[in-house]
# Entry
Amino acid sequence: MNSSFENSAATHLTILHSNDIHGAFQPEEKDGVMTGGLALLSGYVKEARQENGAVYAVAGDLFRGSIIDSEFEGVSTIDLMNVLHPDVATVGNHEVDYGIAHLLFLEKCARFPIINANLFVTLNNARLFQPCLNVYANDLKILFIGILTEEVLASTRGEKVIGTLIDVEEAAKEVGIICDNYRTTGTDMTILLTHIGLDMDRKLAELLHPDWGVDLIIGGHSHSFMEEAEIVNGIPIVQAGTGTDIIGRFDIEYDKEQKKIIDWKWRTVPINEKTAQPDPSVQHLLDNYQSQTDAKYKRVITTFARTLTHPRREQETELGNLYADLIQWESSFDIMMMGSGAIRKQEMGPIVEYQDMIENTPFDDPLWMVEVTGEQFRRMIRHIFRDEAWEGNTEFYQYSKGTKIVYRKSTHTIEELSLNGEEISDDRHLRIAMQRYHYNNFDEFLGVPLAEVSENMKPRIVATSVNNLIEEYFATHNELDSKVEGRIVVLD
# Structure
Protein backbone atom coordinates (compact mmCIF):
# COMPACT_ATOMS: atom_id res chain seq x y z
CA MET A 1 0.00 0.00 0.00
CA ASN A 2 1.08 3.60 -0.54
CA SER A 3 3.29 4.69 2.34
CA SER A 4 3.43 8.48 1.84
CA PHE A 5 1.47 9.32 5.02
CA GLU A 6 0.39 12.71 3.62
CA ASN A 7 -3.06 12.94 5.24
CA SER A 8 -2.53 15.28 8.18
CA ALA A 9 -6.02 14.52 9.55
CA ALA A 10 -5.25 10.84 9.91
CA THR A 11 -4.44 9.20 13.24
CA HIS A 12 -1.08 7.44 13.36
CA LEU A 13 -0.73 4.06 15.08
CA THR A 14 2.33 1.85 15.48
CA ILE A 15 1.77 -1.85 16.18
CA LEU A 16 4.81 -3.89 17.22
CA HIS A 17 4.67 -7.67 17.34
CA SER A 18 6.76 -10.73 18.24
CA ASN A 19 6.07 -14.44 17.95
CA ASP A 20 7.79 -17.68 18.94
CA ILE A 21 10.16 -16.06 21.43
CA HIS A 22 10.96 -19.55 22.77
CA GLY A 23 13.09 -18.47 25.70
CA ALA A 24 15.51 -16.33 23.65
CA PHE A 25 16.10 -14.19 26.73
CA GLN A 26 19.80 -13.39 26.53
CA PRO A 27 21.53 -11.42 23.76
CA GLU A 28 24.10 -13.00 21.46
CA GLU A 29 27.07 -11.45 19.73
CA LYS A 30 26.66 -11.39 15.94
CA ASP A 31 29.29 -9.72 13.78
CA GLY A 32 30.60 -7.87 16.81
CA VAL A 33 27.16 -6.50 17.79
CA MET A 34 25.08 -7.64 20.76
CA THR A 35 21.81 -8.82 19.24
CA GLY A 36 18.43 -9.85 20.64
CA GLY A 37 17.50 -10.68 24.19
CA LEU A 38 14.58 -9.48 26.30
CA ALA A 39 16.36 -6.41 27.70
CA LEU A 40 17.05 -4.94 24.24
CA LEU A 41 13.60 -5.97 23.01
CA SER A 42 12.00 -4.25 25.98
CA GLY A 43 14.14 -1.17 25.39
CA TYR A 44 12.90 -0.91 21.79
CA VAL A 45 9.25 -1.39 22.79
CA LYS A 46 9.48 1.17 25.60
CA GLU A 47 10.99 3.78 23.30
CA ALA A 48 8.27 3.24 20.68
CA ARG A 49 5.60 3.53 23.35
CA GLN A 50 7.08 6.79 24.61
CA GLU A 51 7.41 8.23 21.10
CA ASN A 52 4.00 7.41 19.66
CA GLY A 53 1.96 5.24 22.00
CA ALA A 54 2.82 2.00 20.18
CA VAL A 55 0.86 -1.19 20.84
CA TYR A 56 2.87 -4.40 21.42
CA ALA A 57 1.35 -7.84 20.68
CA VAL A 58 2.78 -11.35 21.05
CA ALA A 59 1.49 -14.10 18.73
CA GLY A 60 2.19 -17.14 20.92
CA ASP A 61 4.99 -19.46 22.05
CA LEU A 62 6.71 -17.56 24.82
CA PHE A 63 7.76 -20.85 26.44
CA ARG A 64 10.47 -23.46 25.83
CA GLY A 65 13.98 -23.07 24.47
CA SER A 66 15.66 -21.82 27.64
CA ILE A 67 16.74 -23.37 30.91
CA ILE A 68 15.37 -20.27 32.63
CA ASP A 69 11.94 -21.20 31.28
CA SER A 70 12.01 -24.97 31.85
CA GLU A 71 13.60 -24.84 35.33
CA PHE A 72 10.70 -22.75 36.62
CA GLU A 73 8.07 -24.26 34.29
CA GLY A 74 7.21 -20.95 32.67
CA VAL A 75 6.79 -18.91 35.87
CA SER A 76 10.09 -17.14 35.17
CA THR A 77 8.98 -16.37 31.60
CA ILE A 78 5.73 -14.83 32.81
CA ASP A 79 7.68 -12.87 35.44
CA LEU A 80 9.99 -11.45 32.76
CA MET A 81 7.14 -10.72 30.34
CA ASN A 82 5.28 -8.90 33.12
CA VAL A 83 8.07 -6.30 33.02
CA LEU A 84 7.93 -6.10 29.23
CA HIS A 85 4.11 -6.03 29.53
CA PRO A 86 2.62 -6.76 26.11
CA ASP A 87 -0.72 -5.07 25.45
CA VAL A 88 -2.05 -8.44 24.34
CA ALA A 89 -0.75 -11.99 23.79
CA THR A 90 -2.32 -15.13 22.40
CA VAL A 91 -1.82 -18.80 23.23
CA GLY A 92 0.72 -20.80 21.21
CA ASN A 93 1.06 -24.57 21.02
CA HIS A 94 4.03 -24.60 23.43
CA GLU A 95 2.04 -22.71 26.04
CA VAL A 96 0.38 -26.05 26.83
CA ASP A 97 3.66 -27.99 27.21
CA TYR A 98 3.46 -27.91 31.00
CA GLY A 99 -0.20 -28.96 30.94
CA ILE A 100 -3.46 -27.07 30.57
CA ALA A 101 -3.96 -26.70 34.33
CA HIS A 102 -0.49 -25.20 34.71
CA LEU A 103 -1.15 -22.84 31.80
CA LEU A 104 -4.27 -21.55 33.55
CA PHE A 105 -2.15 -21.00 36.68
CA LEU A 106 0.43 -19.09 34.62
CA GLU A 107 -2.34 -16.98 33.08
CA LYS A 108 -3.30 -15.93 36.60
CA CYS A 109 0.33 -14.91 37.22
CA ALA A 110 0.41 -12.77 34.09
CA ARG A 111 -0.14 -9.03 34.46
CA PHE A 112 -0.88 -8.78 30.76
CA PRO A 113 -3.93 -10.12 28.90
CA ILE A 114 -3.79 -13.54 27.20
CA ILE A 115 -6.59 -14.22 24.71
CA ASN A 116 -7.89 -17.20 22.77
CA ALA A 117 -11.27 -17.66 21.13
CA ASN A 118 -11.37 -21.37 20.44
CA LEU A 119 -10.13 -23.49 23.34
CA PHE A 120 -13.02 -24.97 25.30
CA VAL A 121 -13.65 -27.05 28.41
CA THR A 122 -15.31 -30.31 27.38
CA LEU A 123 -17.84 -30.53 30.21
CA ASN A 124 -19.63 -27.20 29.85
CA ASN A 125 -18.31 -25.78 26.56
CA ALA A 126 -16.89 -22.76 28.39
CA ARG A 127 -13.97 -20.92 26.82
CA LEU A 128 -10.67 -21.32 28.65
CA PHE A 129 -9.61 -17.75 27.92
CA GLN A 130 -11.03 -14.37 27.16
CA PRO A 131 -11.66 -14.65 23.38
CA CYS A 132 -10.84 -11.08 22.41
CA LEU A 133 -9.65 -7.78 23.81
CA ASN A 134 -10.18 -4.12 23.04
CA VAL A 135 -6.92 -2.21 23.15
CA TYR A 136 -7.12 1.58 23.19
CA ALA A 137 -4.28 3.60 21.69
CA ASN A 138 -4.05 7.08 20.16
CA ASP A 139 -7.82 7.54 20.38
CA LEU A 140 -8.36 4.29 18.45
CA LYS A 141 -10.22 1.18 19.61
CA ILE A 142 -8.56 -1.99 18.32
CA LEU A 143 -10.25 -5.39 18.68
CA PHE A 144 -7.76 -8.27 18.95
CA ILE A 145 -9.01 -11.86 18.52
CA GLY A 146 -6.81 -14.85 19.48
CA ILE A 147 -6.89 -17.97 17.28
CA LEU A 148 -5.22 -21.38 17.68
CA THR A 149 -6.33 -24.40 15.65
CA GLU A 150 -6.27 -28.15 16.20
CA GLU A 151 -3.38 -28.56 13.78
CA VAL A 152 -0.92 -27.06 16.29
CA LEU A 153 -2.34 -28.56 19.48
CA ALA A 154 -1.02 -32.09 19.15
CA SER A 155 0.55 -31.97 22.61
CA THR A 156 -2.90 -31.77 24.26
CA ARG A 157 -4.02 -35.20 23.02
CA GLY A 158 -3.87 -36.55 26.57
CA GLU A 159 -5.77 -33.61 28.08
CA LYS A 160 -9.32 -34.92 28.45
CA VAL A 161 -10.53 -31.59 29.80
CA ILE A 162 -9.96 -29.91 26.44
CA GLY A 163 -12.46 -30.30 23.65
CA THR A 164 -13.77 -28.62 20.52
CA LEU A 165 -10.31 -28.04 19.08
CA ILE A 166 -11.30 -26.65 15.72
CA ASP A 167 -9.86 -26.62 12.22
CA VAL A 168 -9.26 -23.56 10.08
CA GLU A 169 -12.78 -23.57 8.60
CA GLU A 170 -14.36 -23.59 12.04
CA ALA A 171 -11.80 -21.01 13.20
CA ALA A 172 -13.10 -18.68 10.48
CA LYS A 173 -16.66 -19.22 11.74
CA GLU A 174 -15.49 -18.44 15.27
CA VAL A 175 -13.98 -15.17 14.03
CA GLY A 176 -17.38 -14.34 12.55
CA ILE A 177 -19.11 -15.06 15.86
CA ILE A 178 -16.66 -12.81 17.74
CA CYS A 179 -16.96 -10.01 15.19
CA ASP A 180 -20.77 -10.17 15.16
CA ASN A 181 -20.88 -9.99 18.95
CA TYR A 182 -17.96 -7.80 19.97
CA ARG A 183 -17.15 -5.62 16.98
CA THR A 184 -19.22 -2.46 17.43
CA THR A 185 -19.62 0.91 15.72
CA GLY A 186 -16.92 2.14 18.07
CA THR A 187 -14.39 -0.44 16.84
CA ASP A 188 -11.80 1.17 14.58
CA MET A 189 -9.68 -1.86 13.71
CA THR A 190 -9.97 -5.64 14.01
CA ILE A 191 -6.79 -7.74 14.19
CA LEU A 192 -6.44 -11.51 14.34
CA LEU A 193 -3.58 -12.58 16.60
CA THR A 194 -2.98 -16.14 15.44
CA HIS A 195 -0.65 -19.03 16.15
CA ILE A 196 -1.42 -21.39 13.29
CA GLY A 197 1.43 -20.92 10.79
CA LEU A 198 1.69 -18.84 7.62
CA ASP A 199 0.05 -21.42 5.37
CA MET A 200 -2.97 -21.67 7.67
CA ASP A 201 -3.11 -17.88 7.97
CA ARG A 202 -3.48 -17.74 4.19
CA LYS A 203 -6.32 -20.27 4.29
CA LEU A 204 -7.98 -18.45 7.16
CA ALA A 205 -7.80 -15.10 5.35
CA GLU A 206 -9.50 -16.63 2.30
CA LEU A 207 -12.42 -17.73 4.49
CA LEU A 208 -13.06 -14.39 6.21
CA HIS A 209 -16.20 -12.53 5.16
CA PRO A 210 -15.51 -8.88 4.23
CA ASP A 211 -18.36 -7.71 6.48
CA TRP A 212 -16.51 -9.06 9.53
CA GLY A 213 -14.06 -6.21 9.01
CA VAL A 214 -10.79 -8.01 9.76
CA ASP A 215 -8.00 -5.56 8.92
CA LEU A 216 -4.79 -7.48 9.74
CA ILE A 217 -3.53 -10.94 10.64
CA ILE A 218 -0.47 -11.06 12.91
CA GLY A 219 0.72 -14.66 13.11
CA GLY A 220 3.18 -17.14 14.53
CA HIS A 221 4.10 -20.84 14.74
CA SER A 222 5.82 -21.38 11.37
CA HIS A 223 8.80 -19.14 12.30
CA SER A 224 8.45 -17.34 8.96
CA PHE A 225 10.93 -14.55 8.24
CA MET A 226 9.01 -12.29 5.88
CA GLU A 227 10.49 -9.44 3.85
CA GLU A 228 7.09 -7.92 3.19
CA ALA A 229 3.48 -8.42 4.19
CA GLU A 230 1.51 -10.98 2.21
CA ILE A 231 -1.96 -9.82 1.19
CA VAL A 232 -4.69 -12.47 0.92
CA ASN A 233 -8.35 -11.58 0.39
CA GLY A 234 -7.36 -7.94 0.91
CA ILE A 235 -5.92 -8.68 4.39
CA PRO A 236 -2.20 -8.15 5.16
CA ILE A 237 -0.62 -11.19 6.86
CA VAL A 238 2.67 -10.80 8.74
CA GLN A 239 4.99 -12.80 10.97
CA ALA A 240 8.33 -11.91 12.56
CA GLY A 241 10.45 -15.04 12.39
CA THR A 242 11.39 -16.37 15.80
CA GLY A 243 13.29 -15.30 18.91
CA THR A 244 14.06 -11.76 20.02
CA ASP A 245 16.53 -10.51 17.42
CA ILE A 246 13.79 -8.95 15.25
CA ILE A 247 10.42 -7.35 15.85
CA GLY A 248 7.59 -6.74 13.40
CA ARG A 249 6.37 -3.16 12.97
CA PHE A 250 3.21 -1.75 11.39
CA ASP A 251 2.97 2.02 10.91
CA ILE A 252 -0.65 2.78 10.14
CA GLU A 253 -2.59 5.90 9.15
CA TYR A 254 -6.26 5.67 10.13
CA ASP A 255 -9.06 8.03 9.10
CA LYS A 256 -11.59 8.29 11.93
CA GLU A 257 -14.22 9.92 9.70
CA GLN A 258 -14.04 7.25 6.99
CA LYS A 259 -13.53 4.54 9.66
CA LYS A 260 -10.77 2.83 7.71
CA ILE A 261 -7.04 2.40 7.30
CA ILE A 262 -5.94 4.77 4.55
CA ASP A 263 -2.26 3.91 4.52
CA TRP A 264 0.15 1.47 6.12
CA LYS A 265 3.64 0.07 5.87
CA TRP A 266 5.14 -3.00 7.52
CA ARG A 267 8.73 -4.04 8.12
CA THR A 268 10.85 -6.02 10.50
CA VAL A 269 13.32 -4.16 12.69
CA PRO A 270 16.54 -5.80 13.95
CA ILE A 271 16.88 -5.71 17.72
CA ASN A 272 20.47 -5.00 18.68
CA GLU A 273 22.57 -2.47 20.56
CA LYS A 274 22.44 -0.14 17.52
CA THR A 275 18.63 0.00 17.43
CA ALA A 276 17.75 -0.23 21.12
CA GLN A 277 18.95 0.52 24.62
CA PRO A 278 18.67 -2.35 27.12
CA ASP A 279 15.93 -2.09 29.73
CA PRO A 280 17.78 -2.30 33.09
CA SER A 281 14.76 -3.63 35.00
CA VAL A 282 14.40 -6.59 32.62
CA GLN A 283 18.15 -7.22 32.67
CA HIS A 284 18.26 -7.19 36.48
CA LEU A 285 15.47 -9.77 36.74
CA LEU A 286 17.02 -11.86 33.97
CA ASP A 287 20.43 -11.85 35.69
CA ASN A 288 18.74 -13.03 38.86
CA TYR A 289 17.21 -16.06 37.13
CA GLN A 290 20.42 -16.72 35.19
CA SER A 291 22.51 -16.89 38.34
CA GLN A 292 20.12 -19.47 39.83
CA THR A 293 20.22 -21.72 36.77
CA ASP A 294 23.97 -21.33 36.17
CA ALA A 295 24.75 -22.93 39.51
CA LYS A 296 22.90 -26.07 38.46
CA TYR A 297 23.40 -26.27 34.70
CA LYS A 298 26.78 -24.72 33.83
CA ARG A 299 28.84 -27.91 33.91
CA VAL A 300 30.48 -29.68 31.00
CA ILE A 301 28.78 -32.98 30.22
CA THR A 302 30.63 -33.99 27.03
CA THR A 303 32.60 -32.68 24.08
CA PHE A 304 32.02 -32.88 20.34
CA ALA A 305 34.83 -33.18 17.82
CA ARG A 306 33.50 -29.95 16.29
CA THR A 307 30.37 -27.82 16.18
CA LEU A 308 27.45 -29.91 14.90
CA THR A 309 24.51 -28.31 13.14
CA HIS A 310 20.76 -28.69 12.66
CA PRO A 311 20.02 -25.86 10.20
CA ARG A 312 16.62 -26.99 8.94
CA ARG A 313 13.98 -29.45 10.06
CA GLU A 314 13.18 -30.72 6.56
CA GLN A 315 16.51 -32.40 5.86
CA GLU A 316 19.03 -34.81 7.31
CA THR A 317 21.27 -32.99 9.81
CA GLU A 318 24.41 -33.68 11.83
CA LEU A 319 22.70 -33.22 15.19
CA GLY A 320 19.71 -35.21 13.98
CA ASN A 321 21.91 -38.18 13.08
CA LEU A 322 23.80 -37.98 16.37
CA TYR A 323 20.66 -37.99 18.49
CA ALA A 324 18.90 -40.71 16.50
CA ASP A 325 22.02 -42.89 16.73
CA LEU A 326 22.68 -42.47 20.43
CA ILE A 327 19.06 -43.30 21.31
CA GLN A 328 19.12 -46.37 19.04
CA TRP A 329 22.53 -47.49 20.42
CA GLU A 330 22.29 -50.87 22.18
CA SER A 331 18.51 -50.76 21.92
CA SER A 332 15.82 -53.36 21.30
CA PHE A 333 14.50 -51.59 18.19
CA ASP A 334 15.73 -51.30 14.61
CA ILE A 335 15.17 -47.62 13.81
CA MET A 336 14.92 -44.49 15.94
CA MET A 337 12.69 -41.82 14.39
CA MET A 338 13.78 -38.58 16.06
CA GLY A 339 11.38 -35.70 15.53
CA SER A 340 13.27 -32.90 13.80
CA GLY A 341 11.31 -30.34 15.81
CA ALA A 342 12.40 -31.96 19.08
CA ILE A 343 15.95 -30.74 18.36
CA ARG A 344 15.81 -27.05 19.23
CA LYS A 345 19.33 -25.73 18.60
CA GLN A 346 20.66 -24.95 15.14
CA GLU A 347 24.18 -25.74 16.32
CA MET A 348 25.84 -27.24 19.38
CA GLY A 349 29.37 -27.96 20.63
CA PRO A 350 32.27 -28.49 20.69
CA ILE A 351 31.89 -27.92 24.47
CA VAL A 352 28.52 -29.23 25.64
CA GLU A 353 27.23 -28.13 29.01
CA TYR A 354 24.29 -29.70 30.81
CA GLN A 355 22.33 -26.57 29.99
CA ASP A 356 22.98 -27.07 26.26
CA MET A 357 21.71 -30.64 26.48
CA ILE A 358 18.47 -29.66 28.22
CA GLU A 359 17.82 -26.68 25.96
CA ASN A 360 18.39 -28.78 22.85
CA THR A 361 15.90 -31.49 23.85
CA PRO A 362 13.48 -29.78 26.25
CA PHE A 363 10.59 -32.16 25.49
CA ASP A 364 11.67 -34.96 27.79
CA ASP A 365 9.15 -37.77 27.61
CA PRO A 366 8.98 -41.58 27.39
CA LEU A 367 10.20 -43.52 24.38
CA TRP A 368 7.65 -45.79 22.72
CA MET A 369 8.34 -48.79 20.49
CA VAL A 370 5.98 -50.07 17.82
CA GLU A 371 6.31 -52.81 15.23
CA VAL A 372 5.47 -52.08 11.60
CA THR A 373 5.61 -54.05 8.39
CA GLY A 374 7.73 -52.86 5.49
CA GLU A 375 4.54 -51.91 3.65
CA GLN A 376 3.33 -49.84 6.59
CA PHE A 377 6.73 -48.16 6.95
CA ARG A 378 6.65 -47.27 3.26
CA ARG A 379 3.24 -45.64 3.73
CA MET A 380 4.58 -43.72 6.72
CA ILE A 381 7.53 -42.37 4.72
CA ARG A 382 5.27 -41.40 1.83
CA HIS A 383 3.06 -39.46 4.25
CA ILE A 384 5.99 -37.77 5.99
CA PHE A 385 7.51 -36.70 2.66
CA ARG A 386 4.29 -35.28 1.19
CA ASP A 387 4.40 -31.86 -0.48
CA GLU A 388 3.50 -29.92 2.68
CA ALA A 389 6.65 -31.23 4.38
CA TRP A 390 8.88 -28.91 2.36
CA GLU A 391 6.97 -25.86 3.61
CA GLY A 392 7.91 -26.69 7.20
CA ASN A 393 4.31 -27.17 8.34
CA THR A 394 4.39 -30.92 9.07
CA GLU A 395 6.36 -33.27 11.29
CA PHE A 396 9.68 -34.44 9.85
CA TYR A 397 12.13 -37.01 11.22
CA GLN A 398 15.79 -37.91 11.58
CA TYR A 399 16.62 -41.63 11.24
CA SER A 400 19.23 -43.76 12.98
CA LYS A 401 22.25 -45.26 11.27
CA GLY A 402 21.68 -47.77 8.49
CA THR A 403 18.41 -46.23 7.30
CA LYS A 404 18.35 -44.92 3.74
CA ILE A 405 15.45 -43.13 2.07
CA VAL A 406 15.64 -41.90 -1.52
CA TYR A 407 12.55 -39.90 -2.46
CA ARG A 408 11.69 -38.16 -5.73
CA LYS A 409 9.51 -35.09 -5.16
CA SER A 410 8.33 -34.67 -8.75
CA THR A 411 6.73 -38.13 -8.88
CA HIS A 412 6.07 -38.60 -5.15
CA THR A 413 7.85 -41.94 -5.25
CA ILE A 414 10.22 -43.75 -2.91
CA GLU A 415 13.11 -44.94 -5.06
CA GLU A 416 14.95 -46.65 -2.21
CA LEU A 417 13.97 -47.66 1.31
CA SER A 418 16.60 -49.80 2.94
CA LEU A 419 18.14 -50.75 6.28
CA ASN A 420 21.82 -51.67 6.53
CA GLY A 421 22.06 -51.96 2.76
CA GLU A 422 19.10 -54.33 2.39
CA GLU A 423 15.90 -53.16 0.71
CA ILE A 424 12.96 -53.25 3.13
CA SER A 425 10.41 -55.68 1.71
CA ASP A 426 6.69 -55.23 2.32
CA ASP A 427 6.48 -58.31 4.54
CA ARG A 428 9.50 -57.48 6.69
CA HIS A 429 8.79 -56.49 10.30
CA LEU A 430 10.63 -53.54 11.86
CA ARG A 431 10.64 -52.22 15.39
CA ILE A 432 10.59 -48.43 15.44
CA ALA A 433 10.95 -46.04 18.38
CA MET A 434 9.63 -42.52 18.81
CA GLN A 435 8.90 -40.07 21.58
CA ARG A 436 5.47 -40.01 23.26
CA TYR A 437 4.40 -36.81 21.46
CA HIS A 438 4.72 -38.59 18.11
CA TYR A 439 3.20 -41.82 19.44
CA ASN A 440 0.18 -39.88 20.75
CA ASN A 441 -0.30 -38.34 17.29
CA PHE A 442 0.64 -41.44 15.31
CA ASP A 443 -2.28 -41.40 12.87
CA GLU A 444 -1.92 -37.71 11.99
CA PHE A 445 1.88 -37.47 11.88
CA LEU A 446 2.62 -40.81 10.21
CA GLY A 447 -0.46 -41.43 8.08
CA VAL A 448 -1.04 -45.01 9.24
CA PRO A 449 -3.60 -45.90 11.93
CA LEU A 450 -1.99 -46.83 15.23
CA ALA A 451 -4.74 -49.43 15.69
CA GLU A 452 -3.52 -51.17 12.51
CA VAL A 453 0.11 -51.11 13.63
CA SER A 454 -0.82 -52.35 17.10
CA GLU A 455 -2.02 -55.61 15.58
CA ASN A 456 1.63 -56.48 14.80
CA MET A 457 2.71 -56.06 18.42
CA LYS A 458 1.32 -54.27 21.43
CA PRO A 459 3.20 -50.92 21.61
CA ARG A 460 5.22 -50.43 24.76
CA ILE A 461 7.41 -47.92 26.55
CA VAL A 462 11.09 -48.85 26.33
CA ALA A 463 12.49 -45.85 28.25
CA THR A 464 10.74 -43.52 30.67
CA SER A 465 12.95 -40.52 29.81
CA VAL A 466 14.64 -39.69 26.51
CA ASN A 467 16.94 -37.24 28.27
CA ASN A 468 18.09 -40.00 30.63
CA LEU A 469 19.38 -41.86 27.56
CA ILE A 470 21.02 -38.74 26.12
CA GLU A 471 22.64 -37.72 29.41
CA GLU A 472 24.09 -41.17 30.05
CA TYR A 473 25.47 -41.43 26.52
CA PHE A 474 27.04 -37.97 26.77
CA ALA A 475 28.50 -38.77 30.20
CA THR A 476 30.22 -41.91 28.86
CA HIS A 477 31.36 -40.66 25.42
CA ASN A 478 33.59 -37.78 24.37
CA GLU A 479 34.72 -36.17 21.11
CA LEU A 480 31.43 -37.14 19.49
CA ASP A 481 31.07 -36.53 15.78
CA SER A 482 28.35 -37.00 13.21
CA LYS A 483 28.02 -36.22 9.53
CA VAL A 484 25.27 -35.93 6.96
CA GLU A 485 25.80 -39.17 5.07
CA GLY A 486 22.84 -39.63 2.75
CA ARG A 487 20.30 -41.26 5.05
CA ILE A 488 17.73 -38.92 3.49
CA VAL A 489 18.15 -38.18 -0.21
CA VAL A 490 15.55 -35.96 -1.86
CA LEU A 491 15.66 -35.78 -5.66
CA ASP A 492 14.29 -32.94 -7.85
In short: Residues 280-297 form the longest helix (18 residues). The chain has two domains: 11-290, 299-491. The chain has 14 helices and 29 strands. The radius of gyration is 24 Å.
